[in-house]
Amino acid sequence: MAIPKKIRTLLAVAAALALHPTGSNAQKLDTVSTFSITTYMDAYYAYYTDSVGPNNNQKFPSTSPRSNTPSLNTIQVAINYSSDKIRATGVFHYGDIANATWPHPYNNIMEAHVGFKVYSKLWIDAGFFRTHFGTEYLLPVENMTSSVAVGTYYEPYYESGIRLNFDPTKKLEINLFLLNGYNMFVDNNNKKSAGMGITYALGDNGGVGYTNYIGDDSPVDSSVAHLRFHQNVFFNYQYRKFKFQVGGDYCMQQNSDLATGTKTATMYSALATAKYQWTSKFSVYGRGEIFQDPDGYMSTIIVDNTGKRTGYKLWGVTAGVEYKPTDDSYIRLEGRRLQMDKEQFIFDYNGSRYNDRYEIMINGGVTFDLIKRFATRVSNPPEPTIED
């Protein structure tokens, strides 16, 4: 028998009131956990004046590593879960960034870690992490530029171990790490490394930070210690339509100088980036960078045109324009010049050797939520009422 329309309407209203009670006896709903899935994609076309052959990665491969080959930097899916006492993150990626910079067989895992609240604002997390180190991030969506500086290329991209996270105030964050090694998921010896990251927010417009790494990643059969102490400082700030970023690295490594092999070698790098928001959708940006590794313990050891053994020494400039069709997407046209030391001819182009390289790239990226925020809720008991 069909139910009359008026009765169906009354039943619908009653059901709504039952699901959403009101009044003094209504149950209070508290969110205890959230779950989200976010996707990010970046495609590119790049051209380099360095003839490395079809489908080969350029020198300093990170973002957009292949020349004259339209390709995919990354497509990734980030899964996040958080509750009052437990949190977990898994990020899986595929593309040229995963193949060029992440270690096999884990190259499709960008990060995967789980954490537990120890006390109040103190958390402990363990697993695979993206690096805590450096001024720039790796992904174009995270930076003002699409490419990263050479100094950033030689910083670690990923790490594995245990993290102690403490946020004593809304502005201050402190992270301590026990790690398997420098840019390693799997330990290569029986020694553990340590790291630290401290950031302080300068209101809503910027922040300052310090990160470091200390460890010896010498192979187990090495009789010589190579203790590395790598430090980084950075500063980010936005003033009206201008955005600024500056940072620098200083690294020391034991028993690594080219002359004797028994002295401490040093490396330093720095970058400065500025962006001007021309209109709501268009912006222009530029970056300057230097990288000095005279002993070659971080870059590589080469023989220059004078017959001297040395490491990479270079500077570079980058300029670009960005168009944002939406808040979650971008299109960038970017040019860059890298200039090596006057005797370091490391680039090949059309059969000739050069000590500089020009590059141009076009990037398009978009971020979107598959599940923006799925909340699991529990009901607290209703508050008691006082009867007259």
Determine the number of helices (DSSP H or I, runs of at least 4 residues): 3
- List low-pLDDT spans: 1-30, 383-388
String of helices and strands: HEEEHEEHEEEEEEEEEEEEEEE
Total beta-strand segments: 20
pLDDT average, as an integer? 88
- How are strands sequenced across the largest beta sheet? 1-2-3-4-5-6-7-8-9-10-11-12-13-16-17-20
Strand content: over 45%
**What is the domain total for the residues?**
1
Distance between the termini: 46 Å
Structure explained in plain terms:
This protein has 388 residues and is mainly beta. It has one domain: Beta Barrel (Porin), CATH 2.40.160.10. The protein has helices at residues 5-19, 96-101, 150-153; strands at 29-48, 71-83, 86-94, 109-119, 122-130, 158-166, 172-179, 193-201, 206-216, 227-239, 242-253, 265-276, 282-292, 302-303, 309-310, 313-323, 329-340, 347-349, 352-354, 356-379. The protein has a 16-stranded antiparallel β-barrel. It has a two-stranded antiparallel sheet with strand order 14-15. Strand 2 and strand 3 form a beta hairpin. The radius of gyration is 26 Å and the shape is globular.
